[in-house]
Every structure is written in structure tokens, then in C-alpha cells.
Amino acid sequence: MDNHELLAGYKESLKVAWGYNDYEDWPLRISSIMHLFTDTFAQEFLEDVEALWTDELGPELMSQIFVYPGRLFRLIDVVIFGLRRIRTPLDLQRRFITQMLRSAEILKSGDLFNRDGRNLLKQAILPHQEMFSSGHSNLIHKLQAALFMYTEAILFRGHDAVKSVHGPYKTDKGTLMLIREFHNLSPDQLWPGHYLIPTKKVVTICEYAVSADIRVDCYDHLYHSGKLNESLISWNVTVDDAVVTDPERIISLVDDVISRTRTVSNLVDSWSWQQKTEKYADIFWFRKAPLRLRRGLSAEPPQSVYDRIRQGQPNELRSKCLSPREVAFLIQLGV
Asked: 61: which of 220, 227, 228, 322 lies 20 to 30 Å off by Cα?
């Protein structure tokens, strides 16, 4: 695809993603406080990319730094929001979008924009069939739901830094394999250790019947018209790269995840909006930390970001859901 086709495909992908995501955010609506730090975030991000980018190796390097195409897609949106606030020329915004999309393209073995409903990655390796277990469908889906809620508690809306959904991969039997990767599960840069599970990464691979009708978009959103619980054929779970087949160990992990999620959620609910916004800023800088660390720079927000949050106010006009017309207008402006 040439750059024009890339930008057109990206614009179409936003219509799906923004329609999916436009609901009330926890712990507060992100769009109401983004003006307090995303311009600084975006300016730093652009500087980091430009410092590391070369025409020959730039896409390969960005793909190595961020690992997952969905992470690159999600970071584009917030960076563009910030660049628009500081009136960055449109040609530079478009250059940034195409840089990130070219990087995401390197990681994909299927269509970049998942127009066939499949998010297929080159790095995906499916275990041998004998490494899969059967039964316990409710438990496996409870594990996935618990991990999803836990990552929401510790990373708020920073989904790209903590989880990836890819597939469905078609097997020789005609079944579907869906991979959910939960990573960065113990970010002690953001939270004291006792709030976090002592696990870095959990991966679940589920084999489903075709009747599940699974689709995944390029932002790692999962859609299905069938019932996943009833469609599960077999599963494989790894915790920090070790295969786990014992249901009792999975139950113990689920209980720990739920307990810590409640603890963090209750703490955050007790905070002021400024405290929540400061944590949002910390999370945003964590999302782009691989860039800063690659350059040997501090991955923390500058003090000016905290000062601005403490002196600012939420934007009440952005505290409500956007209408489809408003979403369409913002997409048109952004690309």
C-alpha cells in the first residue's frame, strides 16, 4: 500500500474503534482530562520517534520496541490528539501516522487493518495439540475476565501496554485459535509491589468451534456472535512461560487477581480527580517508556505535567459520550 492507501485504511479503522470505545471511562473520562498532558506526551513521543527513525531501519526498530501492532495503532490516536493541540502541521501528523503503520505492517502476517476480521501476527506460535487441555470452560473465561479487569485497574485505559488479542488462526481441523496475551502485569514503576500480582505475563490460547464467529479488529477488540463458553474445545495457559494445566492453580491465580483488583480499585475510587489524572499521566509515560529508555532518557513525566494538572480543571464539555456525527467529525479532522 502507498501512503494514501495507508491513511485511508487508518481513517476507516477509527470509525470502528471509536464507536466501540465511546463509553464512560473508569476512573474518570479520559477525554475530559487529556488536554492537561497529552500535548507534552505527543511532543516527546514525536521527538523520540524522529531521533530513532531512519528510512531503512525505522519501521523494524519501532516494531521491535512495541512488539504488538495493536499497541502501535492505539498509540497513534493519543499522539495525534496531542499534536493537534500544539498545532503540528498536518503533513507531520500524517508522516507520523504512516511511520507507525509501516511499523505495525512488519508485525502482521495478514491484512494490516484486519478487514477480514483476523488479527494475524508473524510472531504467533501455536503449541502442539498435546499441550492443550479440555473442559473447565467457565474457569478459563473467568481467568481472562479477571485479568482484563485487573489490567483496567492498574493501567486504566492504557490497554496497549498490558494486553493483546490476536487471531483467530485457522487450524487444519477447521477450528479457530484465539490468543490473549496479558503482559506487564507487575508494573512496579506505577504501583507499590503489594498491589500487584507476582506474575509478569499470562497467555491463554483457546481453540473454538467455528460457530463462535470470532473477529478481532486492529485495535485488539474482540467480537463474536456465538457463545464462547459453549464453543471452547481446548485451551492452553502459560504463566511466565510455564504451562499450567492444574485447575486448582488457575483458581488460586483468579482469586489473587480479583483480590488485588478490588484493592487497587477501592484505592483509586477514594482519590481526587487530580490524583487520578496524575496517575493517568504516569500511565501514559509508561506506555511510551520503551522509546525513552532506548534513548537513555527518563521515562517519567516532567514536573511541568504535574504542575499543570494541579492548576487545571477537567473539560466538562468532554465528559459526555460523543454522538456518531461528532465522532465522524473528529476522525475527519485527525487525518
From this structure: 220
